[in-house]
Structures are given as C-alpha cells and as structure tokens.
Amino acid sequence: MLGTLLALARLSSQPVLSRLARYYVNIFRSIPLLLVISWFYLVVPMIISWITGNLEPVGAFTSCLVAFVMFEAAYFSEIVRAGIQSIAKGQINAAYALGMTYAQAMRLVILPQAFRKMMPLLLQQSIILFQDTSLVYAVGLMDFLNTARSKGDIIGLPHEFLIFA
Fold first, then answer.
1. Rounded distance, CA 20 to CA 79, Å?
2. Residue 116: HSE in the Cβ half-sphere, 13 Å Cα cutoff
3. Does residue 36 sit within a domain?
4. How far, in whole angstroms, is CA 123 from its chain's centroid?
5. What is the rounded average pLDDT for all residues in the chain?
6. 71-117 pLDDT tens trace
C-alpha cells in the first residue's frame, strides 16, 4: 500500500509531493538493505527517544519490520509507477469523458489494469523480499555480541567473552 501511495505521489502534478516521493525512492534504492536494517535498529530508537523523551527500546522485530516496509516500499513504488505508466492515455481520457474524477479514474480504471500487468513483477519482488529477510541475522548478531560484552564486563573478562562469541 505504501508503494502504491508513493507511486501516485510520484506521478502527482504537485511538484513538491512528486519531488519528495522521488527523493524517498532514490534514497532508499541507493543504499543497501543491511545498512537500512542496522540503521533502523541502532539509530532510529535513539532519535525517537530523543524526540519523545521516552527511553523504551523499540525492539528488534519492530525495527526490522519498519526497515523492511520503508525499504521495500521504494521498490514496489517503482513497479506500480511503471505499471500505471504502461496503461494507454486513452484509458484515462475515456474515464474523464465518462465524468470521473482523477481519483475515480485511478481507482476504477487505471489501477485494476495496471495491477494485472504488474503481477509478475510484484511476485518477483515479493520473492526477493522473502530472501532478504535472512539479512535480519545482523540484528541478532548485534544483540548476541552486546550480550557477550555485557556478561564479560560483569565478570571482568570482556575481551575473552567477545572472542568466544
């Protein structure tokens, strides 16, 4: 859904909305997923606690879920945008001729045809997303090493515990 909203924003005639969506997509498509996962796990909870003053941890699952949603939305939005642009201009003109608004034309005419054309690419990106979930090991590895370091600090042997881990 976020990918569809980004694609519609990117195709919008409002330059500010279109530019913001384009920047979002370009930024998230240009950085590796492992970096996004690490960033959301380490930095975003600190920023949230700095803004809200609440020091409760976000948690590994939540931060990874948000990282995947934000990252994959950029890729899905490009698929949806390409699908919308693949529909002939005559379709939108026919919808306007019937008296439909832009939102009605998109919802009732353009998007159903576009999603039919996008199905193979959406399935392929979903498979890639499923394969990318293996990168979450980095968060578990960070938790594992932090636990080893803290246990080593308690006993007074932090280096030995980290080497063992």
1. 18
2. 5
3. yes
4. 16
5. 86
6. 999 999 999 999 999 999 999 999 999 999 988 999 999 999 999 99
How many domains is the chain built from?
A: 1
Q: Is 145 within the bounds of a domain?
A: no
> At how many degrees (to 10) do helices 137-155 and 33-52 cross?
60
For residue 86, give the CATH number of its domain: 1.10.3720.10
Q: Is 96 part of any domain?
A: yes
Q: In this structure, are residues 10 and 18 in contact, taking their beta carbons and an 8 Å threshold?
A: yes
pLDDT digits 0-9 by tens, 134-155 = 888 777 676 777 777 788 888 8
pTM above 0.90, yes or no: no
Does the residue 150 lie in any domain? no
